[in-house]
Amino acid sequence: MNTEIRQLEPQALWNKFADLNAVPRPSKKEERVIAFMKAFGENLGLETLVDAVGNVIIKKPATSGMEDRVTVVMQSHLDMVHQKNNDTDFDFDTQGIDMYVDGDWVRAKGTTLGADNGLGVATIMAILESDSIAHPAIEALFTIDEETGMTGAMGLKGGLLSGGILLNLDTEEDDEIGVGCAGGIDVTATRQYEEEETSEIKIGYKIEVKGLQGGHSGMQIHEGLGNANKLMNRILHDKFEAFGLRISSIDGGSLRNAIPRESTAFVAIDAMKEDDFVAEIQTLETIIKKELKTMEPDLSITASKCETPEKVMDLMTQEGFTRAMYAAINGVYRMSADIPELVETSNNIARVIVEDGDMHIGCLTRSSVESSKIDLVNALQSTFELIGCEVEASGDYPGWTPNMDSSILKVMTKVYEDLNDEKPHVAACHAGLECGILGQNYPEMDMISFGPTIKGAHSPDERAQISSVQKYWKFVLEVLNNIPKK
């Protein structure tokens, strides 16, 4: 399996990536990959430990002549986002990722690839296994659950690591050196509602929004990608007066850190208005597809006749729900006033479930400014409380404040310029990296983030650029060779 991938250069890295991708590793179900990584370290004869929350730490002494250099922590997360196309038959709990080469890119067949953050993990594994790569003492830190709560980083105790420099291998553009990131918080609105028996004059319809690209809800939130939950609400909003539309159920989106690609609603409409309703959906599809034609060329909005649902949401709740969904902020809330082109604060309305008298709306709010994050949380809370929801904010994690005087930043900037004859892009990102959390227990550690070019993370369109991985690998090795003395 994946023999084509194993022939790519650098083979040491791609072989470890193929080994890793054979192990199922969804967030919060990392038992198998933890055991895999523990066995890997022990089989190399290296000091290996698993901490109380499941993070794996493997320590390797410096190579000859590098003993006087600062100890380096190399860090990546073990879990991956599991997303697949609706027509893909795949079980993430039992199957390894099926990869293939597409020109200069490595992709997966109908699923996420796991390059985020598997390429970082594979890089560290290749270096730990090597007997020819020069490096200072290394403490390899493989964290768990980065994608759905960062509980691994949060649970890492002080005192387990002694390194003075941390290299986080979780950035997705090969010309970028990351020096800061956004913090985040989960906002969840829930309530119960009354259901009514569906009137005999109504018929059932299934409405589907699909074909959207989806993507990373931090790194791609500013790109104008369609949000299936917002589009579905646009279709449902104010359709009662014209067609007697009543909502029976909605199932939209999936993970908080993924821009929702698909949404399905089952509704009931007045039978005598059927032709007008179908025509309205077709008109809306034409309008919305025209609006999003550049970013979402494969968008599809369909309405198909189905069995009439037995029960529907009470009308007062329906009106409040659709209005609250319209009012709820989605996308960019504020751009940074200090760093050009950086999103400061955003929200992703990631998951909407309406069924059997229960309503659930899940959001992920991000910001590099704590006060702005709380401001947006308050706005969302106010919106949903107006329709009687209970709103919970949970899973709060801090951002990572840039340090432009970082010693390792200066080293890496020079190394990058020497290798590529151009300056790197030194930037903060709107994704959630673990550096800010790790810095709470290791405040003196000098941190930096970088990685190869990965596109479409958190979606089945995820792909890793082969030539970029080769460029990145050379950069990693040269950085290790230039770690300053203690």
From TrEMBL:
GO biological process: proteolysis
InterPro entries recorded: Peptidase_M20, Peptidase_M20_dimer, Peptidase_M20C
Keyword Hydrolase attached: yes
Cofactor: Zn(2+); Co(2+)
Keyword field contains Calcium: no
SUPFAM superfamilies named in the record: Zn-dependent exopeptidases (SSF53187)
Top class in the EC scheme: hydrolase
Any coiled-coil regions, as ranges: none
This protein's name: Cytosol non-specific dipeptidase
Source organism of the structure: Pseudotamlana carrageenivorans
